[in-house]
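quick one before i forget lol
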Amino acid sequence: QVQLVESGGGLVQSGDSLRLSCEVFGRTIETYAMGWFRQAPGKDREFVAGISWAAGNTAYGDSVKGRFTISKDNAKHVVYLQMNRLTPEDTAVYYCAEQTLSYGLTYEAGYDYWGQGTQVTVSS
């Protein structure tokens, strides 16, 4: 049973930084990519960042480009999301997801496994 566990969320002030982590447990098949998505109250879930596991190719949502960085540790099977210059608009529940086949990093429906989410709240 594959399980994704996020950590690192919290309450910060505008302009601060946070680093989220996501560890994968119970893997039995190969990972193609890992991604981060977020959902703010009353809004649809949106793509934040993705990284291909073998090549390390990355993609970012327009609202986070230049501020967020996704990275990975293949040996630990952990993916990170470094978030800098946070604003109140970044307030959301952040979800980690794993893709086992190649559907494209930004394609939400292509992700097979999801974590429970971690809350990030940015105060002004």
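fyi The chain has no helices and eleven strands.
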